[in-house]
Amino acid sequence: MTAPLLSLRDLRTEYRTDRGTVQAVRGVDLTLYRGEILGLVGESGSGKSVTCMSILKLLKRGGHITSGSADYDGTDLLRLSEGQLSRVRGDKIGVVFQDPMSALNPTMTVGRQVEEVLLQHRKISKKDARARAIELFKLVRIPSAETRIDNYPHEFSGGMRQRVMIAIALACDPDLLIADEPTTALDVTIQRQILALLKELRDRLGMAIILVTHDLGVIAETADRVMVLYGGQIMEEARVADLFEAPQHPYTRGLLAAIPDPRQSGGALTPVPGSPPDMRNPPSGCPFAPRCPKAMAICLTPPDLYGAGDALHLRPAQRTRCWLADPAVPAELMEAT
Amino acid sequence: MNSASRMPLAWLAQRVLMMLVTLLAVITLTFALMHAVPGGPFVSEKMLAPEIEAALNAKFGLDQPVWRQYLSYLWGVVQFDLGPSFKYPGVSVNSMIAEGLAVTAQTGLLAIICVVALGVPMGIVAALNRGRWPDTLAMFVASLGIAVPSYVIATVSLYVFALRLGWTPAFGLDDWRGYILPVFALSGFWMSFVARLTRSSLLETMGQDYIMTARAKGLPAHTVMLRHGLRNSMIPVVTVLGPVVANLLTGSFVIEQIFALPGIGRHFVLSITNRDYTAIMGITIFYAAFLMLMILIVDLLYLWLDPRISYGDRK
Ligand SMILES: Nc1ncnc2c1ncn2[C@@H]1O[C@H](COP(=O)(O)OP(=O)(O)O)[C@@H](O)[C@H]1O
Ligand code: SF4
Ligand SMILES: [Mg+2]
Prior knowledge:
The complex is a heterodimer of chains A (337) and B (315).
Chain A: E1 6-17, E2 20-32, E3 37-41, H1 48-54, E4 63-72, E5 75-76, H2 82-85, E6 93-96, H3 110-121, H4 126-139, H5 145-148, H6 158-170, E7 176-180, H7 188-205, E8 208-213, H8 216-222, E9 225-230, E10 233-239, H9 240-245, H10 250-257, E11 305-306, E12 319-321
Parallel strand pairs in A: 3-8, 3-9, 6-7, 7-8
Antiparallel strand pairs in A: 1-2, 1-4, 4-5, 9-10, 10-12, 11-12
Chain B: H1 3-6, H2 9-36, H3 50-59, H4 66-78, H5 93-128, H6 133-147, H7 150-164, H8 177-206, H9 209-216, H10 221-249, H11 253-258, H12 264-273, H13 277-305
Helix pairs in contact in B: 2-13, 5-6, 5-8, 5-10, 5-12, 5-13, 6-8, 7-8, 8-10, 9-10, 10-13, 12-13
The complex binds adenosine-5'-diphosphate, iron/sulfur cluster (SF4) and magnesium ion.
Adenosine-5'-diphosphate binds next to strand 1, strand 2 and helix 1 of chain A.
């Protein structure tokens, strides 16, 4: 069994604001293997962005990682200083953000924004950096790369800007690409193209991808494995086929039931009745309990992630954070409240 | 994309034309006002003999119909001739402005340099140390600079440094030390203003998504701030700098009065008390033209700072 590329253990991240402390991530475990696309899915506010940005400590003001470890290639990223982390960011791990309209610096040519990351991490001349930037533009299929490189972001469409972002993220051949809702801001056709591009680049370059989305259709089309987040915790974790075939968690079931054809993009996660918990004051038991049709008395106690290891596939098997999945729960506790 | 294609000549021509139209309006308005105020230019404390007054009127063309006076004045302005002073025989308004400007420009330029070279870094240091003592200190000083009027700064510093300590001369610019206090008093407010603006604009810019991108690229914190934050945060600062430059280069009567500097601000107020009509008109027109020129320069600076701006097509 190969060692994982990244293993995140018990990650807890909070945001301290004027109006209280938001417990954005509450003990997330995540294991990622080389070359795999792991989908992170969940409603808005479930903690997807904070989880994946915590890996590189790319938190906005007020954000604090209070516990956990992020073992990447033998080092715990969460213990690195800012200076040490900056050698990982952009070099070993690339990031693509949600909104390509605002994620590029409006006053710098796109070429310079790509060259900059190369010059930061590689000992190369400006001329070579430029040549490599053109090469990267071709890789992400930006037409007329040689001339477009001298343009400013506002001279590109949203889809093309996202390609520029991907070129920046891939510039130093990272082993891991974190893509936080890379297609949410784009229209459906462009979304398909970008997802296809990411998949193709994974096949060609072999990097692993953490793909954040609130769209189950995107997961179905792109990911190998998926983690469903809710209230800053993992509700269910499975291979994509398994999740769609046999969802275990009531939340996942609700999501899937509400979507006519989950294998189509556009299956945005809104239809489960009720609204997500206030993360300044999350429920003490199962976070989904207030919305769960199966909620029981025991659900006021926090459930664990249940599920046996999968001996055949040597990969983490389907795991579910729900009392219903715990084989040890006595029948008398399973009464509806 | 180069700057030239974002600033077509047609736009520049239109801009200059608009400036000329505005200037014409300013000339017309000041001319009309000067003729509307009660009492002729020569009515002062002592009465003039009627024949002398008539001779003076003839000399300055005041016996002509108003429209002819207006046209001949306009013709003068077109030739950059603002006419003779009403008050001082044989002195032209042009030479009054030139003489005053020579003094004002020296202190004004130094003040502008202080505003930019001290105000902007002060704001950057404050933003870099947000919430820590350098920030608190810089913002405390800046609040003082904004709250305390320049004449108070001038008077107090004059009293302390010139009269009590004797470190600087009390008036005049004969010694380099003579510049210190006037420049300090002139720039205090704007320096503080620019420091606060730089700080808040930089902090705002640092919250933008592309700053997170820059961090995700592995750039060191200072590179993120200076390369990606600063340029974008300078756009509002440049906006205020245009009028600030115009303001400082056209002088401050109060400061020039306190330090006994024969600058243009002092000339302007003196010409009002003297009812030096042509001087008032001339200096006003000069002020207006200068301000418009500064605003044009600011617009050109925008072009350089922000590649999204294009002056060609109005959509
Ligand atoms: N900068 C921030 N300041 C305060 N709270 C934040 C900030 N960013 C995220 N949060 C909070 O953290 C929680 C998780 O947010 P996030 O990870 O962005 O959700 P998602 O990406 O799944 O939509 C939410 O409750 C959100 O309000
Ligand atoms: S633990 Fe209870 S409330 Fe939570 S999902 Fe399972 S059944 Fe529903
Ligand atoms: Mg998000």
